[in-house]
Fold each of these.
Amino acid sequence: MEDLKRILLVGVGLIGGSVALAIKKEHPVHIVGYDVKLDNCHLAKKLNIIDDCTEHFEEEAVRADLIILACPVEKAELFLEQLAHLSLKEDVIITDVGSTKSRIMEKAEKYFNNGIPFIGGHPMAGSHKVGPGSARAHLFENAFYVLTPSKNATNGKIDILKTWLKGTNAHFIIMDPKEHDLVTGVVSHFPHIVAASLVRQVENHSSKNEHVKYLAAGGFRDITRIASSSPEMWRDIVKHNQPILLGLIDQWMTEMNDVRHLVENGDSEELYNYFDGAKKYRDSLPVRAKGAITAFYDLYVDVLDKPGVISDVTTLLAQENISITNIRIIEAREDVYGVLRISFQTEKDLERAKTSLENRGYETYISM
Ligand SMILES: NC(=O)C1=CN([C@@H]2O[C@H](COP(=O)(O)OP(=O)(O)OC[C@H]3O[C@@H](n4cnc5c(N)ncnc54)[C@H](O)[C@@H]3O)[C@@H](O)[C@H]2O)C=CC1
Ligand SMILES: O=C(O)C(=O)Cc1ccc(O)cc1
């Protein structure tokens, strides 16, 4: 035990837990969790995600070889400041997993001018779920994992961190923190705000008309799924990426104004071209290409409404030894082709399931 390297994991939730599992897959190591929610720590220990829990952040920080900040981004900043005042191990590396990078990097450059390497990190995959119970070692498989090294971080230190994180099977890319925040603002943070606002619009209408709630199924649920993620996490992300998000909101308002004119004019060709342009661009986006932001391997299966059909599908998958993580019957058929949504742990399982079901005559669709 004494010889094992020690990792301090601050924030033992979905992402911290998944990183810990990926590290454990590749390295014999002693991981100690620290979390404001003690229950999360205890659950993670029970699930063998971490080896121990501590309530003494500083005591553990000075013993650690690697410190991973995996709590909401505003809290991560505070921990960084606390770490700067401690006598940490000479060879320690500090990293984080936060969804924004500029603010934490500014703080890291300010606090660690003593030589301690801080290497910002952002695994670009995840889910709307929270807590260690949803952590998975394969969560980041094939996803981009952005690294934003501070000035102190030599290539040697970056390589050591990549070796620690090898089990994620992610694709590491080094990015400038400002560029990172712009890109993630466009593809992740701003869409999250839009999803939340769509849900709130439906909520407003549902207080006036009881049917709204029941008809808000299918497509609406799909485009607003991310609105079910942790409000605490998104509060912090929006505060950290404020300037970029304000610019994107302004652009969106101009876009909505243009759309308003299109709707007002009612010109068939203009309306068609608007939707056609959006469809063409969306269809050209890489689907399940390496690095796409996704951790969901969902297959839609068109099934006839007759008894025994679900057991036929699940029996077939069981015979092929393909594990499923979730199965759901989707009642609104307009938005997706198919009525059964089956989720898998890996892309390989999804592809195998697709082939087996199609060989049996089912029509299947992969939808993002
Ligand atoms: N959820 C996602 O899909 C992704 C999230 N991230 C980033 O990962 C970080 C963690 O998010 P998740 O794991 O998704 O959330 P989570 O809610 O599953 O985990 C966060 C953990 O941090 C703990 N925590 C909160 N305040 C704390 C404090 N003051 N001290 C110690 N622990 C504290 C919480 O109790 C919780 O266990 C966030 O910074 C988020 O921006 C990055 C990539 C994807
Ligand atoms: O649930 C999803 O589809 C996500 O997009 C998850 C996500 C949330 C925050 C990130 O910084 C990265 C990925």
Note: Residues 10-16, 34-37, 40, 70-73, 75, 97-99, 122-123, 126-127, 130-131, 229-230, 233, 237 surround NAI (ligand 1) (CB under 6 Å).
Amino acid sequence: MSLYYETADILMPAGPEAGTTTQRSSSGSLKSRIFTKKGLKSPAAQVFALATETCKWSEVLKEVIDNADLLRHERKLTPVLALLLVHDFLLSKGGITLPQSHGLRQAIERHKARLTSELTRARLRRKMASLDALRVQIKRDGDPEGRHPRWVRVNALKTDIEEQLESTFKDFERVLSIAAVTATGPSNKSIYLDDTVPGLVAVSPGIDLTKTKAYKAGQIILQDKASCFPAYLLDPHAEDGDVIDSCAAPGNKTTHLAAITHSHRPEESAPRQTIFAFERDERRAKTLEKMVKTAGSEGMTTIGLGQDFLEVDPQGPLYRNVGALLLDPSCSGSGIVGRDVTPELHLPGRPPPPGAKGAPKKKLKLPKPDGKDRKRKRDADDEAKPVLIDDDGNATVVSSEQDLQKRLQSLSSFQLTLLLHAMKFPSARKITYSTCSVHAEENEQVVVKALRSEVAREAGWRILPRAKQVRGMREWPVRGVLEASDGDQEVAEACVRAKQGDGRGVMGFFVAAFERDVVPPAPAEGESKLFASEDGPYLRDDEGMMVRDVTGMPVLKSTGRPVALPGAMHLNALEGQQGEGHEHDESSDDHDYEDESPSKASSDSEGSEGDEWGGIDDRKNEK
Ligand SMILES: C[S@@+](CC[C@H](N)C(=O)[O-])C[C@H]1O[C@@H](n2cnc3c(N)ncnc32)[C@H](O)[C@@H]1O
């Protein structure tokens, strides 16, 4: 089967029987339908490129084909085939990839003059000075990522906004809204300073920052705005002690946690917090390791390479001081921009049926490239079915609502198990739970089930109400779904959602936080009580301000004395506990980081950009 027939089949598996119409090109994401289709003879990447480009151009091409009256003159062409062939004829560098003598190619090339002049008319109707200008417009309008700003987190561990505005972004024009940063188009360079997440900026879509010095040096990290919510909402302070990122690769949130704890450190000499980052997939854990190194946070991060969080013992001495956990488990990935795009296809009008006025007298039989009747019963395996690809890269055929429900139930029960495990850490008093899913089953419903669980009730976990959240999250207007929160207004209000395509320039996302009051753990023998009670390890005055000595050092409650080189003490205390048979010891402090070139590290972290793990379906993994 030729590339054109195969692509037409993917776009319109049932055959375009309707007349002039605008329709979704079948169900399921185009990418998953193509890449999981068995028996494709043409390279899947080629079919995908032709299908997506034709969809983007279909509004213009429909006009060209209709006005050139192509389908009336060439009755062997179906509307979809006409779109695909005219696309390549007018817009592809190589033209139609069929031999010159091929009937399909001749059917188009016979109308060269008319088709070319109709394309010029279509362009002029859109007030575009050149075909290149039209290309830019089509790319921006047809590509969901083309309308999505590029979010950039300035890494506080290495630089700050001011420095970046004067260097990496010095040629960028400052704009004051998301609409302005996306409206300026890929040829312009504008920058918007986000007012929700500190240190976050958005630049115009299509700008490639991966070649910049700042990107290669880990000073800037490409991370979607919504993906910055969990670490920002968790807001780990010194008094929260150590932090766990339970499902960490590729490491966007781990490195964000590191930057936040660094910014919150009261003094250089304050106790160092450790971020334990677990990742059960070893390959992804390597990416995490590289990202942590590039971001400059390896000194404060202990990576559990290939470590399943569910096997981490909450009672283990290493985690005695863990006061905050970030849980961002695998999910359906349904909120990821560009993930499940079903492109719109504008079909040209079909000619009137034979016998009708203006129709040719003789009915022409459609030639079939394989010589077989296309009405043959399709092989069930040959049929492209919608597939759900989660952010672990697992593909599940979801040909019915029931299949989808089954998959969501299985994901949400796994997510709940992880969340309940996080709730078992004895010193924990803050947890964030997040997904890049749009489904309530993985979001509000997991939160509600967790709150009702015995684990949460016994340990005293509550939802962190909106009023107690960090400013940017408290003020974020998109909240949880009331119905999905079982009608609980406080829970719905406490949940934070991000919605793709609502003008805020974010992907689909969900995050909620839990809090509780904890009784501080009894210090181990010989261990100073660096992390502790409700308001932290430092002595505070009646107004809640830290008490400091004359040199400005915070005073510890446990000793009544100012902090003295506690970083080293703290780490030594933890190191001393390693090798006690704890599952984490192999990946602790002495990482033997392989020497990597920044570009290698960059491409790995870029591979994860979009900013959740994209698995095998991730657009960047194709590069
Ligand atoms: C959504 S991704 C995490 C993205 C990451 N938080 C970031 O922002 O870069 C989920 C990750 O969790 C890992 N994972 C899933 N279950 C896990 C478990 N039980 N223990 C540790 N890691 C797990 C998956 O392999 C995957 O890499």
Note: The CA atoms of residues 36 and 384 lie 7 Å apart.
